[in-house]
Amino acid sequence: MTRSLQNNIKAIYLLGFFTGFMVVIPVFVPLLQGHGLSMSQVLQTQALFALTIALCEVPSGYLADLWGRRNAILVGSGLNALGFFSLLWADSFVDFLAYEFILGLGFSLISGSDLALLYDTEVYLRERGLRGGAGPGKSLSRLIAVEAAASGIAGIGASLLLLWSMDSVVVVQAFTGFAPFLLAMLLVEAPRPGSGKDTSTTGHGENARRIIDLLLFGKPVVLWTAFAIAVFGLLAVYVFWIYQKYWEMQGVPVSWFGYIWAAFALTVSLSARFSEAVEQRLGYRQLLVLIAILPLCGLLGMALGSGWWGVMFGFAIQVSRGLSMSLFYEALNRRVPGEFRATVNSLVSLGVRSIFIVTGPLLGMALDKQGMETTLFGLLAIFAPLMGLVLVPLVVRIHREQGQEANERSATTAA
Questions:
Q1: Within a domain: residue 415?
Q2: Is pTM, for the whole model, over 0.85?
């Protein structure tokens, strides 16, 4: 059992790598445009992906908590493999909608389950003095870094494959998409630390009440961390789909898209990998300020810049992405009981997807009708106040939590 759990950590890292290794993503917008889709239609396919996840995210996360994270990851990876394989014959708007629907089902099952399984594996091994990985917090950062690095390598692979044709990118994606499914077979379910209550025996209504109590009436830091993840995650999704159109408008050849994507992904990977060291150096308040300033500078620089100078400002957004993902998800998972960790992670992702369902197509329409510069200034005007609205209360509640913990330690010592 111990040996299998120790292997879990390596298997989840590898699974994260191949889940992030999607050579089709760095050139996805040109791929769909080559099949006659407009930017509005491209964003509509992503809205369907978001809608599918929104409908399935929380039920799938709850099923993962109820029936096992390993089973959820296995089924989700199988659906993703099927979705990527469908690209071999996809040629129309409807075909790409079907592709996004299948992937939405798959990713909704994996989302949150991999983080929860990794975290629980690390906690279980550490509580028993057994050798595991880097520890619960660092392991989450490393998983994020691995997935980002995989995206970067996929970007390089996409550019190299474009030396042959766009079809070669699709073929490689169709077959490498089966790797996560094979790796998921190696996983084992980890005993879950926490309150000791079993989600499979307490009743669904009682479980729902406990989850709501946790988010709304439990530790305030949990709720505001979830808000922060939603705001920064939503901005990340927007720029994710803006980048390729932006590069095209700046005159960057499509053959370079993969290399730029690789550099952006490597930036996220390194930022996530060293986020803990940056927090120790700056402190959490200064780090949160940095996380907010960087993407705003990036949007402004992209709007005002031109050519490669505008492209370079995208790196600021990527640095913030790596730091924020690592910081916020570690803070969230550390404060959430093990039996509901996958459900809470899914709820957080649901917030992002739900908003994107409506706003994604609007973003595509803005790009088609208003242009890139106006759209970027619009995002800047929206997200500058939003970041302040979530980060200021978060800092206040972290400060209060630290004060309460210090008082409790003092009382314990005095007793």
A1: no
A2: no
